[in-house]
Amino acid sequence: MPGDPRPIGVFDSGMGGLTVLRALLARLPLERFVYLGDTARLPYGTKSAETVQAYALQASRLLVSEGVKMVVIACNTASAVAVGPLTEALAPVPVIGVIEPGARAGVAATRNNFIAVIATEGTVKGGAYARAIAALRGDIRIVQQPCQVFVALAEEGWTDTRATHEAADHYLRPLFRGPSPPDTLVLGCTHFPVLASAIRAIIGSSVALVDSAETTALAVAEALEGEGLGSDGNAGGAGATRFFATDSPERFARVGEIFLGRPIDALSVELVDLRVL
Amino acid sequence: MPGDPRPIGVFDSGMGGLTVLRALLARLPLERFVYLGDTARLPYGTKSAETVQAYALQASRLLVSEGVKMVVIACNTASAVAVGPLTEALAPVPVIGVIEPGARAGVAATRNNFIAVIATEGTVKGGAYARAIAALRGDIRIVQQPCQVFVALAEEGWTDTRATHEAADHYLRPLFRGPSPPDTLVLGCTHFPVLASAIRAIIGSSVALVDSAETTALAVAEALEGEGLGSDGNAGGAGATRFFATDSPERFARVGEIFLGRPIDALSVELVDLRVL
């Protein structure tokens, strides 16, 4: 079977989803990507479900207009409310969110059937991780904690400052004290993997840390294989990524480096206006 | 002269501008207010000048359609780029921003002619404080520091946590070390007044702290008097405030309390869609 050289579309409210792109690039080196950060309207995490659904639909339509073969919602807030509507609206293009893979990995990791989930306010309030975990295994307890300040710390590049450690202590210490704390922590926001070492310093080495960027990359790889959509790289451009942002390409490139883990040329970031689509 | 009972319009990207409303309520107890938080699109601080101008125009048009006699831009980012365009677009309704009053108060406070300004990335990048201060007095040195994490800390209600002290230390210590540091610090973001005690702990008691909410309220009082627009309170409703938000009235009310310093009833917050205006 010949490979499918069309790119994979990835979108997020901003730059956090670049942790997912980073994991995708590592796992799928023969693929091409189109990444869209809706920076004019970030963050999604404090906005209502209706608003986020409307924004996600506009973002994914831009990706489809760029000829993508799959849409990855690299944003927990949008995944929580928009996987269903987008799957319907974009068919036959498959849509993959970050919640389901993260929930699956959390369930696989826990031994004491007690999982902690940290996320934005919007994701916690929507309860999507609780539902996804309950759908997989009914006997697992979960505790959720919104960690809104983590988003700003990650975007500032304060991955390991004293302020970050104090914020991690403030949010996480209460979750992990007590005689039988959770043994698994799901990072339910794509910004959070860059704070992993500060988080690890608070929760200790015995708690399993589930990075939904990694687990989503695995889910995408499986879906590509399952649907025969993988690229063999023969058409060229393996690993190439086009970047779109809805505002401030300069900031996208500068802050994006933190999440992607490598430089982004601001001049290569294309500015688009989703409101006119 | 009879009083003008029309309300004063105040807008911000979200809830931070409620520190300005709080100062206005204290200084102008006979006035009525309409406050709009553009919560669906916050924060403005990381967005481009063009985008912020377009949003500010939509927000102020809603206020004008509510019959306000003056528009207060209770947002540094929007004040930095939109006072001119709004003054032109809304004439004869006067427009007052927070930058000019803050700059004036900073210039009045400094003795060593060296002022520090902390603000969002957008405000610092736009250089509006530097320009406003230079226009008042050409011989004043200024140093600017974007403090993006402060916004998240303030919105989380972490007004005085260890994380807040560490963040203040990270941002401010470098500005105030050295043999001849600034003797004045302008809080160039309406979120920052709620962090004053953590900020004060780092900068010490000898530095003058300029709160642009207070200075803007004074400027509004002077403008009302100058233009004969003040209310005598005889039409009733003194101190009454209508609240509008573009998303999540529940979050507006909950987070807004931190900045307004008193409870807001979420049911009293009216949801509006600026995109259709």
Fold topology:
2 copies of one chain form a homodimer.
Chain A: E1 8-12, H1 18-27, E2 33-37, H2 49-65, E3 71-73, H3 76-90, E4 95-96, H4 99-109, E5 114-119, H5 121-126, H6 128-136, E6 141-146, H7 148-155, H8 162-176, E7 184-187, H9 196-203, E8 208-211, H10 212-226, E9 241-245, H11 249-260, E10 269-271
Parallel strand pairs in A: 1-2, 1-3, 2-9, 3-4, 5-6, 5-7, 7-8, 9-10
Helix pairs in contact in A: 1-10, 2-3, 4-6, 4-10, 8-9
3D structure, described in words:
The structure is a homodimer of 277-residue chains. Chain A is of the alpha/beta class and 277 residues long. Chain A folds into 2 domains: 8-97 and 214-276, Rossmann fold; 99-212, 3-Layer(aba) Sandwich (Rossmann fold). Chain A is 45% helix and 16% strand. Chain A has 11 helices and 10 strands. The first copy, chain A, has helices spanning 18-27, 49-65, 76-90, 99-109, 121-126, 128-136, 148-155, 162-176, 196-203, 212-226, 249-260, and strands at 8-12, 33-37, 71-73, 95-96, 114-119, 141-146, 184-187, 208-211, 241-245, 269-271. In chain A, the strands form 2 sheets. The first copy, chain A, has a 6-stranded parallel β-sheet, sandwiched between helices. Chain A has a 4-stranded parallel β-sheet with strand order 6-5-7-8, with helices on both faces. In chain A, helix 4 (99-109) packs across helix 10. The longest helix of chain A has 17 residues, at 49-65. Chain A starts with 7 loop residues before the first strand and ends in a 6-residue tail after the last strand. The interface between A and B is medium-sized, with 29 and 29 residues.
